[in-house]
Each structure stands twice: as C-alpha cells, then as structure tokens.
Amino acid sequence: MLVLISIIVIAVVAALVYNNNKKKITETIEKVEATIAPAVKEVKEVVAKAEAEIAKTKAPNAKKPTAKTTKK
Fold it and tell me: How much is the pTM?
C-alpha cells in the first residue's frame, strides 16, 4: 500500500514538474517569437526593396534590341 501511494505521489510530482516546464518552454518560445518577428519583418522589407531595385535595373536592359534581332 505504501509503495502504491509513493508511486502515485511521484507520478503527481512528475506531472506537475512536466506541466511547469511546459509552461516555461511555451513562454520562452513566445518571447523569442516576439523578439525575432520584427527582425524578420525588417529583413523581408529589405529583400523586397532589393528585388524591386533589381527588377528596375533589369527592365531597361531587357527592352534593348540585340544585334541578332535587328539583322532580320
């Protein structure tokens, strides 16, 4: 009987520790996401600007006729 009670107590303590650790892990993940999200947004904006600049520089070059197309 004492062994059964001991096992139940250990199981309850283990469950409480696991649940507490789970909450801490969740809080940590939320903090990391909150910290990283602005940086990710900023990087996306920079990439979008760079892609727009690349598109601008490529567009005029694509419209120029080449020697092969003008000889026809």
Answer: 0.47
DSSP assignment of 27-42 equals HHHHHHHHHHHHHHHH
What pLDDT is stored for residue 49 in this prediction? 93
CA distances from 40 to 8, 11, 25, 49 (A): 46, 42, 22, 14
Backbone φ and ψ for 44, nearest 5 degrees, come out as -60, -40
In the block, residue with structure tokens 């020697």? 67
**């996306």: which residue's tokens?**
44
User: How far is the C-alpha of 45 from the C-alpha of 12, rounded, in Å?
Assistant: 49
